[in-house]
Structure formats: structure tokens, C-alpha cells
């Protein structure tokens, strides 16, 4: 549970830095957030029978949202 709170903290920090216009800290917070998320999805999550890995959809979704967040950041700061 505490790891999840750190993830939320990084994401809220990302939104706050974007709001105040601090580009470097915005990227730093965004990278930290998705690094934490990818480290959690990279673990061996096993199904009930402990033989199959959980669907990679969670990891795929995380990468898609990371790319979307980075694109939104670049657009917000006028990098077209």
C-alpha cells in the first residue's frame, strides 16, 4: 500500500509542476511515476494456479499512458 502512495505522490507532483510551469521537474516527476509503475508490473504476478503470468495488458496500458503523459507535457510547454 505504501508503494502505491508514493506512486500517487509522484503523479500529483507531476501535475503540480506542470501547473506552475517547471519543465525539468515535471519530466522528472513523470519519469519517477512511470518508473515506479513499470517496476511493479515487471514483477512476476502469478495467477491462481501459479503457472501463468498475468496478462501483459497492464504493462502495455502503462506504456501507452506514459507516452500520452509525455506528449501532453511536451504540448503544454509548447514543444511541437
Structure description:
The chain is mostly helical and 80 residues long. It has one domain. 72% of the residues lie in helices and 0% in strands. The chain has helices at residues 2-20, 23-41, 57-76. Helix 1 runs antiparallel to helix 2 and helix 2 (23-41) runs antiparallel to helix 3 (57-76). The chain is flat, with a radius of gyration of 15 Å. Mean pLDDT is 78; it is low at 44-52.
Query: Mind telling me the C-alpha Rg?
Result: 15 Å
Strand content: under 5%
Helix content: over 70%
- Unreliable stretches, pLDDT < 50, 5 or more residues? 44-52
Largest sheet: none
Overall shape: it is flat
Total helix count? 3
Count structural domains. Answer: 1
For the terminal residues, how far apart are their CA atoms? Answer: 38 Å
Mean pLDDT: 78
String of helices and strands: HHH
- Helix and strand content put the structural class at mainly alpha
Number of E strands? 0
Walk me through the topology.
Layout: H1 2-20, H2 23-41, H3 57-76
Helix pairs in contact: 1-2, 2-3
Which characteristics define this entry?
80 residues; mainly alpha; 3 helices; flat
